[in-house]
Amino acid sequence: MKLARFRVADGEVRLGRIDGDRVTDVTDAAGTASLKAILPRLAEVAPTLAATDGGSHALADVTLLNPIDDPQKVLAIGMNYKEHAAEAAAAGIPTPTSQLWFNKQISSLNDPYGDIVKPAISDALDYEVELGVVIGTRCRRVSREDARGVIAGYVVGNDVSVRDWLQKKSPTFILGKGWDTHGPLGPWLTTDDEVDDPHALRMRLTVNGEVRQDHVTDDMIYDVYEQIEYLTTVMTLMPGDVLLTGTPQGIGAPTGSFLKVGDVVRAEIDGLGHIENRVIADDI
Questions:
Q1: Is cis: bond before 112, omega within 30 of 0?
Q2: Strands (E), 79-126
Q3: Helix, strand, or coil here: 254?
Q4: Which of its termini does the chain have fewer beta carbons within 10 Å around, N or C?
Q5: What is the pLDDT of residue 85?
Q6: pLDDT recorded at residue 195
Q7: Rounded-to-integer distance, Cα 257 and Cα 128, Å
Q8: Mapping DSSP to helix (H, G, I), strand (E, B) and coil, where does residue 88 land?
Q9: DSSP-assigned states of every residue in 23-86
Q10: How does pLDDT run across 196-209, given as a tens digit for each residue?
Q11: Backbone angles phi, psi at 240, to 5 degrees
């Protein structure tokens, strides 16, 4: 099932089930418009959500929102694809010897079709298509073998990065990865039961229709389950937490092909849909 948060014409936020090019309202059946709120009981309510018919809207007539309202954490792993690590090494960035995690600020989150703001003080705005994993249940010390059981589903993400702030202006990734609007997610949550293998998904990113990234998730150095095992050694993951699992080769940094105002960035993953964001100027 594909579940989305959406805003109707009068501004009200609703919860919906994606049915082709329409969204069926399941807010009343779920008892809430919060997708995060139902994640711990998703298996229980899924049959009701799948069967309900609360009226529907054409997707073109609503605004899709970041599917996970108010996640507690957004965590992202760096250089987790073999070929991406190789391109980074060629640019003088050493390959980590263990999982390299950083926080993506909650305030950076954006809707699947929201605008990305290019900072006025940087010309090094970069893109990174990523598979996002959404945690469904509170969990700690999860083994790799049990890790799939804590996953609610998957989203498409773009880990937008300001490279000069990432590599030069701060000794950590927090600032270069944390700008407002630089974390679009969506377009909806695809539940785990719809994905046979999260490590066999093709992902692509285009800028103005030009393919920049095109790869399969089987190139991960640390797979999704290893990531969950590693993180839950340290911390409790909560329902709605989002894990961005790394980007493949083809980012803009090695060639200086950075994003400009007016560019349209489309990130897509087979079976999960696509997000698309226009780059706009900072008006502050």
A1: no
A2: 100-103, 109-110, 116-118, 125-126
A3: coil
A4: C
A5: 82
A6: 98
A7: 13
A8: helix
A9: EEE-HHHHTSS-HHHHGGGHHHHHHHHHH----EEEGGGSEEE-SSSS-S-EEEEES-BHHHHH
A10: 999 999 999 999 99
A11: 95, -15
Integer Cα distance of 3 and 228 in angstroms: 23
Nearest partner of 263 among 201, 209, 213, 192, judged by Cα: 209
Per-residue model confidence (pLDDT) at position 88: 77
> Rounded to an integer, what is the distance from CA 165 to the centroid of its chain?
21
* CA-CA-CA-CA torsion sign (74, 38, 7, 17): positive
Whole-model pTM: value is 0.95
Residue with token string 């502050």: 284
d(CA 206, CA 249): 13
Domains annotated on the chain, with CATH: 2-65 (no CATH), 74-281 (3.90.850.10)
Residue 167: which H helix or E strand, with range?
helix 163-167
| CA dihedral sign, ordered 130, 17, 113, 269 | positive
The residue among 224, 206, 214, 223 whose CA lies nearest residue 270 is 214
Task: Report the amino acid identity of residue 276.
Answer: E
Chain centroid to CA 228: how far?
16
Cα separation values, 265 from 81, 140, 261, 280, 281, Å: 21, 36, 11, 11, 15
pLDDT digits (tens, 9 = 90+) for 118-155: 999 999 999 999 999 999 999 999 999 999 999 999 99
Helix, strand, coil shares of the chain, percent, nearest 5, are 25, 35, 40
**What single-letter amino acid sits at 51?**
A
